[in-house]
Write a structure and sequence with these properties.
heterodimer; A: D-Maltodextrin-Binding Protein, domain 2; 2 domains; two-stranded antiparallel sheet; 12 strands; B: MetI-like fold; MetI-like (chain B); membrane (chain B)
Chain lengths: 282, 232
């Protein structure tokens, strides 16, 4: 049996480590008490991956003293987070879903904030020949007829919902070996599409900010059915009275205000404007 | 790509990038806190499982061993449902905070620490049981004795737990939300940079994380060696 010294270097170090860990916990909770007010915003991967929030939130925080903590997930998951009362505010891009959310009583109000558009991306050699398509529907039909690999988000995000609506209006039921549902965020889907030379539908913001394009190119754009509207929702105080509705309303109103719309319009990546403010209903 | 990843990693470290320091600091704070809490619970639990015989002991041991393979994303989901406003502990408002991340990691690490502690202490007890019985040490009193005697092996056990905690992304992503400056840690930052297609930066962060884990393991090794020398 070994001897039991009260204080060996090992025990001193171990208890030291425990102490530090304990202090770290205390420090964390102490910080929590005097930190500035904040709201939690559930939003989409496209707005975060493009860097929009990093650009506009500091101006809002400067004006209001309120920090905005962004949890970026697919639109479907963002709705679920808000439904459970885990976010104070919601900024997503699925107008039909947003209106249903209001109708179901989870939100009191929705407003247009900004828009951009979806684009069809694919390998540069364009095996399905969608570059010369006259419409998005035709482009999708060409991909399906040629059975070219198509990478779908498959995650019930706003982009995924828009993509499924496009297939439906193109009269194609996507399926088979060529149609690959990834269940991933926009960036991860672009990474995979680049890896397997697949076609993919992306929002323009994520595509422009995306750096691992490999052989991918923008092949089709400009059809008005590719319009991508973002909306902000005021969550219902009746459903979730414990949320920070006052602060969240300030954020919602700021997004729609001249200052907020200006900040969104000023945001550029690689010299390109990615989101077009349209709170005034233009 | 690999070259630029190493360069990126080097730039990040040499430049003492402020964001990186925050992220590294938070990663360490969360994982070390989780491992410390888990160790406080798991050491006595593991030792008790090694020493006492009671009905249901075998199933408990099997369960602990099985939970070593608990997928982080499942642990994360369970903690998410627990801490969500609509969940039983929702009123605490802990979701999307570092505390929630610590809770999830404790759940992940605890079975590993308890199961391995159980095994080490049982081995040790096999050697010393007769001796301890002959000087009349009760089973309860043997727990601290054997834990202390096993401390060299327990360092390795703690490192296994720390490795699990610092490497996982599934749990902290769900319960932390990867909020910039609040709950973003090394692994969730790597996921984010990967999804931006910023692969050199993602790999650079990975290299920084690996280096950090390496340094901590080296420190633990030195600690073990020092103890061994002292014991002769």
């Amino acid at each position: 049996m070994t001897r039991y010294q009260a204080s060996t270097p090992a025990s001193a170090l171990l208890s030291g480590a425990l102490l530090v860990a304990g202090l770290a916990v205390c420090a964390t909770s102490a910080q929590a008490e005097d930190e500035p007010p904040f709201i939690t915003l559930a939003s989409t991967t496209s707005t975060q991956n493009s860097g929009l929030f990093d650009a506009i939130i500091p101006s809002f925080t400067e004006d209001s003293g309120i920090d905005v903590r962004v949890v970026a997930v697919g639109t479907g998951q963002a709705f679920e987070i808000a439904r459970r009362g885990d976010a104070d505010s919601l900024l997503v891009h699925d107008t039909a879903g947003e209106e249903a959310f209001v109708a179901d009583g989870y939100a009191t109000e929705r407003a247009d904030v900004m828009y951009n558009d979806f684009v069809l991306i694919g390998p540069a050699e364009d095996p399905a020949g969608i570059r010369d398509a006259d419409s998005a529907a035709e482009a999708l039909n060409l991909i399906a007829d040629n059975a070219s690999p198509f990478a779908s988000r498959g995650d019930d995000s706003g982009t995924n919902r828009a993509e499924l609506r496009l297939w439906e209006s193109a009269g194609v039921e996507p399926g088979g070996d060529w149609y690959r549902e990834l269940g991933s965020g926009m960036g991860a889907t672009l990474n995979t599409a680049a890896g397997m030379g697949a076609y993919v539908m992306s929002d323009r913001a994520t595509w422009v900010a995306f750096d691992n394009r490999q052989d991918l190119e923008l092949l089709f754009e400009g059809d008005e059915v590719l319009f991508n509207q973002y909306g902000s929702l005021k969550l219902s105080p009746e459903r979730h009275p414990e949320l920070k509705h006052d602060l969240a309303d300030q954020w919602h109103d700021w997004l729609l205000s001249e200052a907020g719309q200006q900040a969104i319009g000023d945001f550029e990546v690689k010299g390109q404007q990615l989101f077009f403010p349209n709170a005034d209903g233009e | 790509m690999t070259d630029s990843a190493f360069l990126t990693a080097l730039e990040l470290v040499i430049g003492l990038d402020a964001d990186l320091l925050d992220i590294v600091g938070l990663s360490l704070k969360i994982s070390l806190t989780a491992v410390a809490i888990a160790a406080l619970l798991a050491f006595p639990l593991g030792a008790a499982l090694a020493l006492f015989r009671f009905p249901g002991r075998a199933p408990l041991i099997v369960t602990l061993n099985a939970l070593m393979g608990l997928p982080p994303v499942v642990a994360g989901l369970a903690v998410y449902l627990l801490l969500s406003r609509a969940g039983p502990l929702g009123s605490l408002g802990l979701l999307f905070t570092p505390t929630a991340m610590v809770v999830a990691q404790v759940i992940l690490v605890l079975p590993i620490l308890a199961a391995l502690t159980r095994q080490k202490v049982e081995e040790l007890h096999g050697e010393y049981a007769e001796q301890l019985a002959s000087i009349g040490v009760s089973r309860r009193r043997r727990i601290p004795t054997l834990l202390w005697d096993a401390r060299l092996s327990l360092i390795t056990v703690v490192l296994a737990g720390f490795g699990r905690a610092s490497a996982e992304v599934g749990a902290v992503m769900i319960v932390g939300g990867n909020i910039d400056g609040v709950t973003r840690v090394m692994t969730t930052a790597i996921v984010l940079e990967t999804s931006k297609g910023n692969l050199p930066l993602a790999l650079g962060l990975g290299i920084v994380l690996l280096t950090l884990v390496g340094v901590i393991n080296a420190l633990a090794h030195l600690l073990g060696e020092a103890t061994r020398r002292q014991l002769g």
